[in-house]
Amino acid sequence: MAKVILSELGEGAREATISYWHFEEGDKVEEGEDLVEIATDKSTFNVPVPCSGILTEVYYEEGDIVEAGGVLANIEEEEALFEEEE
To answer: Which domain holds residue 34?
Structure first.
């Protein structure tokens, strides 16, 4: 299970707002795709999918505020999915 963590935001920002989720729980995601759009008072950016797999849990809804270092979501990694099928 991979955790998607909101990394340090820079420019003195300590929190950000979830603007838009590009996927929903249960969706298949590919490494490098945009997962979620985040906004601070100075910028807007996308957090990429860190590994291919299934988006199993989203911890925040659009409009929620997240502190830097917070866990945004969990992804069941593709390798783990293949091991379960065997």
So the answer is: 2-85
Phi and psi angles of residue 13, each rounded to the nearest 5 degrees, phi first: -75, 135
Q: Which two tokens stand for residue 37?
A: 């759009």
Beta strands in 1-86 (DSSP E): 2-5, 15-21, 28-29, 34-39, 44-48, 53-58, 65-67, 71-77
The domain tally of the chain equals: 1
Q: 51 — phi, psi (to 5°)?
A: -160, 155
pLDDT reported for residue 84: 56
pTM: 0.85
Helix, strand, or coil (residue 43):
coil
Token pair in block for residue 80:
């783990």
**Which pairs with CB-CB distance under 8 Å and at least 24 residues apart come from 27-34?**
27/54, 27/55, 28/52, 28/53, 28/54, 28/55, 29/53, 29/54, 29/55, 29/75
